[in-house]
């Protein structure tokens, strides 16, 4: 059986070394690298393609949520589990909205870390014990990620997909994917409708 290749992203060496030492006692898991910044996480995931990444929320330069968004923009199939000290439901639901497949508190038992890695690797979503209530209730309008808001603002200003792609330094295909997700989340089918949503929601006041 092939081992699950795991990347650790955390700027606290004691945390990284502790988690690595624990995971390496399990035959089914291989820690392939450890990085200390969000930017290094993005670059390493692109280069090494780990099966699962354990990503800290708070890292210097680029936080874990932004790093998660950038990774998923390049590879929608990437599997990222947020590893955090915060058990606030808002942190958890925000992480899930940004595309994380799991959320773990740093003080959970070793067995739960391994369980999370295995379940996320298998394509499931995993929330550690006590945080399951943070999932978005069925039927509630999904919240746009910061990247989707940036795309939406430009579309509402009349920019074409090509112009948005050039402005944000992403591919036209990525813009099209964002546009599709925005329309699905907001349940709005037309550009005029998106523009009206931006005006009514106050998004034009956001800096981007």
CATH superfamily of the largest domain: Response regulator
Average pLDDT score:
86
Number of separate strands: 6
**CATH topology of the largest domain, anyone?**
Rossmann fold
Bulk shape? elongated
Strand order of the largest sheet: 2-1-3-4-5-6
Compute the number of structural domains. Answer: 2
Q: Sheet with the most strands? A: 6 strands, parallel
Instruction: Please tell me the CATH architecture of the largest domain by its name.
Output: 3-Layer(aba) Sandwich
- Portion in beta strands: 5-15%
Radius of gyration from the CA trace? Answer: 18 Å
Uncertain segments:
none
Q: Approximately how much helix is present in the residues?
A: 40-55%
Element-level helix/strand string: EHEHEHEHEHEHHHH
- Classified by CATH, the class of the largest domain is Alpha Beta
Helix/strand-derived category reads: alpha/beta
Q: Report, as a whole number of angstroms, the end-to-end distance.
A: 46 Å
Number of helices: 9
Protein name: Response regulator transcription factor
Organism: Pontivivens ytuae
Domain Response regulatory: 5-121
Modified residues (4-aspartylphosphate): 56
